[in-house]
From TrEMBL:
Major enzyme class: hydrolase
Single GO term (MF): chlorophyllase activity
Keyword annotations: Chlorophyll catabolism, Cytoplasm, Hydrolase
PANTHER family membership: CHLOROPHYLLASE-1, CHLOROPHYLLASE-2, CHLOROPLASTIC
UniProt-recorded name of the protein: chlorophyllase
Active site positions: S138, D168, H243
Gene Ontology, cellular component aspect: cytosol
Family: Belongs to the AB hydrolase superfamily. Lipase family.
Pathway: Porphyrin-containing compound metabolism; chlorophyll degradation
EC numbers for this chain: 3.1.1.14
């Protein structure tokens, strides 16, 4: 079994395929709101899709606080290469809106994907409407949870979701200062969700970076989100990485500069963290959408196969009561 060394990438000989880039080439298309185009999205979107004819599930990917959707291109491309259409809206411009506004805007984008996404894809690429997935990072993770819990007043109620994944989700600055809508109840298994949920956390997210406060503070971070989920649920924590370490390298502009320095970052190669996050998303979607359980169970039973060191031990609690 491989061991973890600072100078080496941490992979076992039996690394699950989910941690590797998929076999499908991908393409990216951006679309902006336009009064002259009836198929235009309500918010700017970046759509990454397999550049191979087929019908694929849709993954909504919500960015974190003050971040840009293009900052996640490596992780999103990883997911899309395994056979998913990833729609990443830009929910803020200069300053983030109020929390409820952001959730309602997310609902509008989801409605758009249901009705008009096809107009922005090649003729040979189609969306599988039966499978729509919510994924989000940081505040975007909280947005994904809020939408799944029914807090988006704008959402077409006929739209159903197949899975939910929070990447280091954050609900506010502290337990007493949370963003609207306040979805955390601080009661175990209180989230009224009937879909599989995975929560990805970071070991350094709750730690301060010099004079900056933690980016993923205790009591409003991944631990509480996971605690309030019901089975089926999974929990995966990258111990040596920080809240922003899954973003691309060399982020542009002032926002990119701030994203690189405001949180406590890990000292290991960020590419390993991106492979970890993309791989957990892919493995959990295989499990949730297709019933392919082997890879996610392998990660739980043998955490050494992960590109990132997992601590505490990963968990997968299935609705049947089976704890992997």
């Amino acid at each position: 079994m491989a061991t973890m060394e600072d100078s080496e990438t941490f992979y076992s000989a039996a690394t699950p395929l989910a941690f590797e880039k998929g076999s499908l080439p991908t393409a990216v298309k951006s679309a902006d709101p336009s009064a002259a185009d009836l198929t235009a999205p309500p918010k700017p979107v970046r759509v990454t899709y397999p550049a191979v004819a087929g019908t694929y599930p849709v993954v909504l990917f919500f960015h974190g606080f003050y971040l840009r959707n293009c900052f996640y291109s490596d992780v999103i491309n990883h997911v899309a290469s395994h056979g998913y259409i990833v729609v990443a809206p830009q929910l803020c411009k200069i300053m983030p809106p109020g929390g409820q506004v952001e959730v309602d805007d997310a609902g509008k984008v989801i409605n758009w994907t249901s009705k008009n996404l096809k107009a922005h894809l090649p003729n040979s690429v189609n969306a599988k409407s039966k499978h729509t997935v919510l994924v989000g990072h940081s505040r975007g993770g909280k947005t994904a949870f809020a939408v799944a819990l029914g807090h988006a007043a704008t959402l077409d109620p006929s739209i159903k979701f197949s899975a939910l994944i929070g990447i280091d989700p954050v609900a506010g600055i502290s337990k007493s200062i949370r963003t609207d809508p306040e979805i955390l109840t601080y009661e175990p298994e209180s989230f009224d969700l009937d879909i599989p949920v995975a929560v990805i956390g970071t070991g350094l997210g709750p730690k301060s970076n010099m004079l900056m406060p933690p980016c993923a503070p205790a009591e409003v971070n991944h631990e509480e989100f996971y605690n309030e989920c019901k089975a089926t649920k999974g929990h995966f924590v990258a111990a040596d990485y920080g809240h922003m370490d899954m973003l691309d390298d060399d982020l542009p502009g002032f926002v990119g500069f701030m994203a690189g320095c405001m949180c406590k970052n890990g000292k290991r190669n960020k590419s390993e963290m991106r492979s970890f996050v993309g791989g957990i998303v892919v493995a959990f979607l295989k499990y949730s959408l297709w019933g392919e359980k082997s890879e996610i169970r392998q990660i739980v039973k043998d955490p050494s196969v992960s590109p990132a060191r997992l601590d505490p031990s990963p968990e997968l609690e299935e609705a049947s009561g089976y704890l992997v």
